[in-house]
Amino acid sequence: MDNIKDPEQFKEHIQKIQQKYLSAQLDFVLESLSGALEQIEKVFPRLFNFIFEFIQNAEDSKATKLRIDIFDNTIQILNDGLPFTKDDVEALCKVGRSSKGQGDYIGYLGVGFKSVFLLCDSPSVVSNGYRFKFDKTYWATKLGEKA
To answer: Could you tell me how far CA 144 lies from the centroid of its own chain?
Structure first.
């Protein structure tokens, strides 16, 4: 996919991805997300293993600097690597999908970033004009409504 240049297109792209989830059958989405979280818990048995995943992501994006700031209830992870492309964002919004090819990168399984959900219900992403967050509690609320 081509890179986006117009700031409004970043927002439209995220809204399009969000709409795919919202228009999907609720049972399917909840089952997929629940299964994904179970797999992540098995792959990352230690709470702070996610930091290694972010180091790996920085390496894969050709970063020369990585900074991890911890304050109050927030962990902020920054690097100077390549900015996200549309393909990167698409992969980040799915479980088990990656825009990275095996052999070209350390991480290519599409689960590394998702390990942050073991520690946080609402991680934010900022890169290349993209500014969005995931909200685990939104789907938990949907599950509660269904019950």
So the answer is: 24
